[in-house]
Amino acid sequence: MNVTGVVLAAGQGKRMHSKLSKVLHPLLGREMLLYVLEAVREVTNTQPVFVIGHEADAVREKLGEAARVVVQEKQLGTGHAVLQVKPLLRGNTDLVLVTNGDMPLLTSETYQRLITAQKANPDPITMLTVETEDPHGFGRVVRDDQGFVQCIVEEAQATPEQMNIRELNVGAYCFDSDWLWEALPQLGISPKGEYYLTDLIYQAVSEGIKVQALCLEDPTEAIGINNRVHLAEAEALMRQRINRRLMLEGVTIMDPQTTYIGPEVTVGQDSFIWPNTYLLGKTTIGEDCELGPNTLVHDTRIGNGVKVLASVLENAVVEDEVNIGPFAHLRSGAHLARGVHMGNFGEVKSSYLGPGTKMGHFSYIGDATIGPDVNIGAGTITCNFDGERKHPTKIGAGVFIGSDTMLVAPISLGDGARTGAGSVVTKDVEPYHLVVGVPARAIRKLISGE
Fold it and tell me: What one-character DSSP code corresponds to residue 171?
């Protein structure tokens, strides 16, 4: 049985007061529509369809090849939005799962329950509801004596008795596709000039169809995002989910309320995360690491036994047993090999630091390839930019760079070379030579291993 997901993501989201489409607002660094996309893809066996409208080009670009898109040129309600998909899906799927792009907390497990219920349902509709004391402006679900849904009453039209109902319409449905395509064109127009998907419930009941409702096990999944207050609520719940999962998998999080971990991050067993730490993007953390406090790691691969204190790591690679910080900055392309020490106020960009190399403090390394067991003295700078182009620096094994050395690229230092404190090195240095001065000159050849 083919099941296709249809995600409604055409609305402007006026209450967000934003130039950005509502579904492109991020939760933990990831756009909310991508959470919905992932959950729907896990439980359907055809490519999902997104109905888009406001900021359509930006939404289409973010979805890429992961979903098909249909543009709702005029936003005339949820029923009208689903109707736009009819030419694409009619005759090509058995069930249609309809949900909203602004409900990122709904899980794949919940969608699977909804689909499974509809597969066993002889009638063409199963809808999702939630029981909560906070109506959040959702429509009330009115059931008959047998427990089937009779109608959905919007809050503005509800009677005082109906206002006391605490079962609400979530806005997710699973339909028999043949019935859906026949029923949608029969929807009446509302006083606002729109066609509402919720009116299908009344329409079905009037035809003698029994509408089945499935109540959410976790009410927090039903939080939809209409404004930035809801956005913050949803992000807090998302963080709780992620942090709880990691702790149950063997990660120690000292203060989950001040720890921010993205949905694509992985953390190894027995790692320890201090407060005010941000792990975002496609970051991977190995086992037995210690991260934070006051640390930001984004799209970075970290090995086992690494310690990072009060530092920023972006698009970097950190191998096992590296020690970083405090106040260090790894920029894009930085690669620290096993056992590297990078102390306070250091910065590395587009560079490789070999195993055992030490970069104590107050140094900048850019566009450099550095061998193993190199000592980089305080205040060392690779002068890699001439105003027009970047130039490389190459440093061999066992090199000792004196404090306040300026390495004017392009330049190469051979194995075992040394620079005196305050040197400005403008020419290549031969292996096992000591250079000093401004500009630096060789004053002595060193015995290997001296």
Answer: E
Give 236-287 pLDDT, tens digit per residue. 999 999 999 999 999 999 999 999 999 999 999 999 999 999 999 999 999 9
Positive or negative: CA dihedral 7, 158, 115, 105: positive
pLDDT per residue as tens digits for the range 18-71:
999 999 999 999 999 999 999 999 999 999 999 999 899 999 999 999 999 999
Give dist(CA 135, CA 362) in Å, integer.
55
Q: State the number of CA atoms in the 13 A half-sphere of 148 facing the CB.
A: 17
pLDDT tens sequence across 398-416:
999 999 999 999 999 999 9
Determine the pLDDT at residue 449.
Answer: 53
76 and 196 in contact (C-beta within 8 Å)? no
Q: What is the DSSP letter of 267?
A: E
Longest dimension (CA), the chain: 99
CA atoms within 13 A on the CB side of 431: 8
Our answer to whether residue 361 is catalytic in this structure is yes
Bridge partners of residue 52, in order along the sequence: 9, 71
- 3-state class (DSSP) for residue 353: strand
Cα–Cα distance measured from residue 203 to residue 183, given in angstroms and rounded to the nearest whole number:
8
**What predicted TM-score, i.e. pTM, was given to this entire model?**
0.89
On the question of pLDDT at 12 being above 90, the answer is: no
DSSP symbol at 446 = P
* Separation of alpha carbons 328 and 245, rounded Å: 29
Alpha carbons 110 and 87: distance in angstroms, whole number: 28
CA distances in angstroms from 319 to 301, 338, 364, 443, listed in the order given: 8, 5, 20, 37
Return d(Cα 211, Cα 201) in angstroms, integer: 7
Q: Is the dihedral of CA 428, 333, 271, 312 positive or negative?
A: positive
Which of 25, 329, 361, 433 is catalytic? The answer is 361
Closest CA to 350 of 340, 335, 361: 335
CB contact at 8 A, 305 and 318: no
Asked if residue 414 lies in contact with residue 396, where contact means CB atoms within 8 angstroms, the answer is yes
Q: Outline where DSSP puts E strands in 246-367.
A: 252-253, 259-261, 266-267, 272-273, 277-280, 284-285, 290-291, 295-298, 301-302, 307-308, 312-314, 317-318, 323-324, 329-330, 335-336, 341-342, 347-349, 352-353, 358-359, 364-366
